[in-house]
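agent: user wants the full assembly modeled, not chains individually. Plan: 1) parse entity lines 2) check alphabet per entity 3) run joint structure prediction 4) return tokens. Steps 1-2 passed, two entities, 500 residues total. Proceeding.
--- entities ---
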Amino acid sequence: LRNIRLVVEYDGTDYHGFAIQRSLRTVQGELERAIASITQNPTRVVGSGRTDAGAHALGQVVSFRTPSAIPGLDMRRALNASLPDDIVVKTVEDVPDSFHARRSAQRRNYRYSLWNAELPAVRERRYRLHVAGSLEIEAMDRAARCLVGEHDFACFTFGLSRYLATGRRRTTIRTIFGAGWRRNGEPVEFDISGTAFLPHMIRNMVGSMLRVGLRKLTPEEFRGLFAKGEVELSTHTVPALGLTLVSVEY
Amino acid sequence: LRNIRLVVEYDGTDYHGFAIQRSLRTVQGELERAIASITQNPTRVVGSGRTDAGAHALGQVVSFRTPSAIPGLDMRRALNASLPDDIVVKTVEDVPDSFHARRSAQRRNYRYSLWNAELPAVRERRYRLHVAGSLEIEAMDRAARCLVGEHDFACFTFGLSRYLATGRRRTTIRTIFGAGWRRNGEPVEFDISGTAFLPHMIRNMVGSMLRVGLRKLTPEEFRGLFAKGEVELSTHTVPALGLTLVSVEY
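--- prediction returned ---
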């Protein structure tokens, strides 16, 4: 069997997330349907990670095994012809047997995007959270710095007990390589890269740092809450629409 | 009665155009519904012009008369709260009685946008026409120059007889103030401004100039067809999704 890696871009607005769910429209479901129809072979795909309902990807990585002999470029063309127009396969590549889109991933790069202006912008509404109040980006960026390094991020996920009960992972310790805020006119972006992320972790980080930007919390208070692992940090969840999986490194 | 001018931005993807049509979702229909619900007064609005089904606006101008005493900023807030999120009222302004969004307009500025790359870009799919082939922008821009000035643009509208039968206007002569192509990486844009435009005129111009960009027609041949008023120029209509009414000048 060949082992194939895809890089996939999608607009998650009209999907119930990446991971397949019975009778709901998911990105994985669409990919598996398209691959099956092209290769005449039902195939399970593995993504580098789940993305939330409504979240997007510029560079989600997916792998699967197939007996098909279709060359990569032809497969890309056929997949894109079969997929809906909010999913695009950017590359198709043969990879060694040992490659696994989730287990081989070393680093995941996410972005959370805001539209910071009095009025919302129609064309940004699916990709950037509209925030009308003026934001102190400097303070938000200062707050973000304490996230870098190896830490227990339990405080940023939803009900810890609920998370651990899913039994998917045993630890809430993760390593963050970089995290920072940047303004570029009305667009404001938070880039974060790390080994892996807990459910809702980035959306809760952003929600709490928005409170810093709106002067409801100082960067020092944010740092204090994080140092103490206060669950309060998981109570300001921003919508998934602003979240994009930018790329995955192996 | 007050006379009020709105500047409106919309994503036309999910609308059957600007102009109201019985039982179809239109931008005008949504605006009239929102104004009626806020002012408690059924009101007809006038737009600077129709936009096609699927075409967009960054600065459509709309005027209407109302007995309402609601101040402009409050009206804007209330309208935006009532409108769907693909329509945003950017400004609300009291204007003299003589102002009429269509009849007072002096100049309309439109843009047609392409995404010129091997692969489509998911986030651009509602706003830019994907063109995979490499385009000679220089040649397209040279072709565009002959459009500037006062000309009979009948060749760019759909079946002339059908157009004249609508009885809305008696002449197919229009004045174009400027027209040109520009590349900015993968995004490619055609900007055109003029007194007014015939139905499908811009979409047919773009379709024929794309043939120039793809080397199926030289700029000189394009100019020749235009000079002779060849109806062939109305047979390459590009989709409305790339078309945006950028602004209207009074």
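agent: reporting back. The longest helix of chain B spans residues 27-39. Chain B has six helices and ten strands.
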